[in-house]
Amino acid sequence: MNPNEDDLGLDSTERGAEAPSKSQLKRDRLALQALAERLAAMPRAELERLNLSEATWTALDETPRIKDPRARARHWKHLANLMEREDRSAIHALTDEAEAHARAASARHQALERWRARLIEEGDGALGAFISECPGVDRQALRTLVRAARRERELGRTAAARKLFRFLREALDAADD
């Protein structure tokens, strides 16, 4: 028998095509550890939608108490090992949904920041554009807040700009409903 063949008659090149490489296994393991970190960072109320084993819940509950970086690295490996037995498609779906929600919230916050900056910088031109986007907005209150934010910006204060931001957020929330 040829040393490159096994009992099934496959040589080493044919076997290699079937089994994942050592590097691929390592990449998969690291991806699972990263998923474990993302899972541990999520609120428990969201995690309860998953049907996790008792051992996984115990490991997730221990996570905040582990402070040492080396112990934390071992903990991620342990949690990844436990997660191999869980429904990873449900875990991926939950973490992807949470990340999509966070991205949407971040984009909304950035849009509000852009509106606030534009209103303070451009004044009435931007005011008309915002009113056309949110027709139910209290125009007089908006004008007053924009003027106050412009005055306070020159003085180096930010209280009126924060009030303007809150007003814009409420106006856009009302327009979305």
Describe the protein's architecture and organization.
This protein has nine helices and no strands. Residues 1-6 have low confidence and may be disordered. It has helices spanning 12-18, 22-41, 44-47, 54-62, 69-83, 88-122, 124-133, 139-155, 159-176. It starts with 11 loop residues before the first helix and ends with a helix. The relative contact order is 0.07. The chain has two domains: 12-86, PSPTO4464-like domains (Diphtheria Toxin Repressor, domain 2), CATH 1.10.60; 106-176, PSPTO4464-like domains (Diphtheria Toxin Repressor, domain 2).
Quickly name the level 1 CATH class of the largest domain: Mainly Alpha
Determine the CATH superfamily of the largest domain. Answer: PSPTO4464-like domains
CATH architecture annotation of the largest domain: Orthogonal Bundle
Low-confidence stretches: 1-6
Instruction: Tell me the CATH topology of the largest domain.
Output: Diphtheria Toxin Repressor, domain 2
Task: Tell me the count of domains.
Answer: 2
Choose one word for the global shape.
Answer: elongated
Largest sheet: none
Q: Give the number of DSSP strands.
A: 0
Q: What class do helices, strands and sheet pairing give?
A: mainly alpha
Distance between the termini: 75 Å
Mean pLDDT over all positions: 86
**What is the overall number of helices?**
9
Rg on CA atoms, Å: 27 Å
